[in-house]
Amino acid sequence: MLCAIPVGFEVAGVNSGDTAWLLASAALVMLMTPGLAFFYGGMVGGKSVLNMLMMNFVCLGVVTMLWAIYGYSEAFGADSWQGLIGSTKHVLLRETQGTVSGPAEHQVPTMAFVMFQLMFAVITTALISGAIAGRAKFWAWVLFVVGWTSLVYFPVAHWVFSVTGYTATDASGNSFDEGGWITNQLKAFDFAGGTAVHINAGAAALALVLVVGRRHGWPRNIARPHNVPFTLLGAALLWFGWYGFNAGSALTAGDLAALAFTNTTIAAGVALLGWIIVEQFRDGKPTALGAASGAVAGLVAITPACGFVGTLGALVIGFTAGAVCALAVGLKFSFGYDDSLDVVGVHLGGGLVGTLLTGVFADARVNPAGGDGLLSGGGWTQLQRQVIAASAVLAYSFLVTLLLAWLIDKLVGFRIDPEAEATGIDEAEHAETAYDLDSPEPPPHRPAPPRRPQPGRPIPSGHDYGW
Length: 467
Prior knowledge:
Layout: H1 16-41, H2 49-76, E1 100-101, E2 108-109, H3 110-127, H4 138-161, H5 181-186, H6 194-212, H7 228-246, H8 255-283, H9 288-302, H10 311-328, H11 331-335, H12 343-361, H13 381-411, H14 418-423, H15 425-430
Antiparallel strand pairs: 1-2
Helix pairs in contact: 1-2, 1-3, 1-7, 2-3, 2-4, 3-4, 3-6, 4-6, 4-13, 6-12, 6-13, 7-8, 7-9, 8-9, 8-10, 9-10, 9-12, 10-12, 12-13
């Protein structure tokens, strides 16, 4: 017997293929946060890994709550003032269920778009955690997540992602709400978040490490990565999820999504090579950590460009990002800031490479909805727009994060006790450990029972039991 299926919230005009792709992409981007947890978790010491995992996983809870209450409205509500902030129209996700978004031939349920963009908010905030690995109080971090997403990510997402007329306010799917200034007035190109995600998180990471300070004993006495396979697994999950991140940002299941998918693959692969080639010349050997980091650097750099450039652009952007980020991670030793897991070098560095080179390699023949960059006959105009967009997001994120982190440090303190930092943060902050390496009484040895010889198979000499 078939059950009745409620259809009260169905709306006409929805493109089921585009909707399926957007929901699948949202799920892929969600997977990136656990992937990031493994990527970061493998790079810390064995007594700090649970804290690193928790700092990432808690973002799924905190940011989701904020997004549902006011975050989506702040990012994608009708513009309130000069393209800087959204309205309160969609507080508690009002006027989203039962409405559609997108152009007539590619309309999707607005709620699908809401969930897709939520996953961007989660992963962007989680990225920052690697910069202060092993030395931050857990609840201070949670307080930071609340403040940073509200004051930095949601407004910047409005600037970059809120396209005028895309989100709907009625069942017909028609909306003429004004969006953010970077995408609509400045017309800088950012296909999937080079500015809103990576430059934003990288600048915040730099500000945060300046407030929290260096690890005790850095740079000489710091824990080595305890589980490189974890990091490689995390990089693979990030790469897999990034297809939803980039190709999903086409918001349709068509040629543009295929282009973004292809460019994402190319850039990640050649960036991996770029990083380990630098390691070979600089250090004499390529490393597994370098390969994982190089792939992520390429994914970061191609994010703003993947829907605007052709194959040559993807190759150059990817290889440049791998090489530049491999060199950029060493700047922390020159300038004295302790970025534990190289968030600044990979995400700020890679985000800047990708955002600026988008203005060089953008090609209207690849995406007519975009425009031509410097090498396609467009002159310097688009590159100038990219510089303005990158600079604005970097400056805003850095300054607001610096103030926010300073306030939290004064109110509750950001650093754990030196003793807990030296012995490992997991026990101090979470009362548990990832590995039970110090069991007080090992289980008694119980030899296996003797095996009877089988016909035609004598027991080997010197063995009382088993083979």
